[in-house]
Amino acid sequence: MRANAITGSAALQRLLDGNARYAANDPNERDFSSGRAARIAAQFPIAAILGCADSRVAPELVFDQGPGDLFVVRVAGNCLNTDLLASLEYAVEVLGVPLIVVLGHSGCGAVTAAIRVMKDDAELPGHLPDLIRAIKPAVVLAGKAPAGDLLDNAIAEHVRRTVAALKRANPIIKRFHESHELMIAGGVYDLATGRIAFI
Fold first, then answer.
1. Which residue positions in the chain have pLDDT lower than 50?
2. Which of 101, 125, 107, 115 lies closest to 49, judged by CA?
3. Which pTM value belongs to this model?
4. By the 8 A CB rule, do 192 and 106 touch?
5. What residue ranges define each of the domains in the chain, with the CATH number in brackets?
6. What DSSP string describes 23-74?
């Protein structure tokens, strides 16, 4: 039996339990050298995480998981592009992960930049405009919300839009999701509390 032969919902519960421990500052004690030899031969992560590159949001820590438990891909603004999609396809097709989590976070600088570009015509250097382009639709939708903070709403909307895009992602992710072999969820990490709210 594969080490990650659990359902997506069971994997999600492990992450929820781990985040509760992390937020309470009561993480599991680990011997990080234990199992190192076994990990040379193979990896069996229980989940793949598409997260923001923000240095304050380290998925292995905020979910209180050990080496080999998570297959993590990160980019500013937790945006989905072809390279990251290919990495997630590998996690699903080859490594057999039963769960993908799109993880945004409070105070996201990439989403803040997208708002500034749209509201104030701010100009960004280098390749940043390419990154911001992926976030703009979420800002537009968040701007139509009847209540709430624009930044918070846009962060949550961007996570929801990315989850929806993954569910439609042919040929691999969509097939596994539609056959119920893969669960896709989204959450927002709160920098102040350490808690993740799934949306």
1. 1
2. 101
3. 0.94
4. yes
5. 8-198 (3.40.1050.10)
6. HTT-PPP--TTTTHHHHHH----SEEEEE---TT--HHHHTT--TTSEEEEE
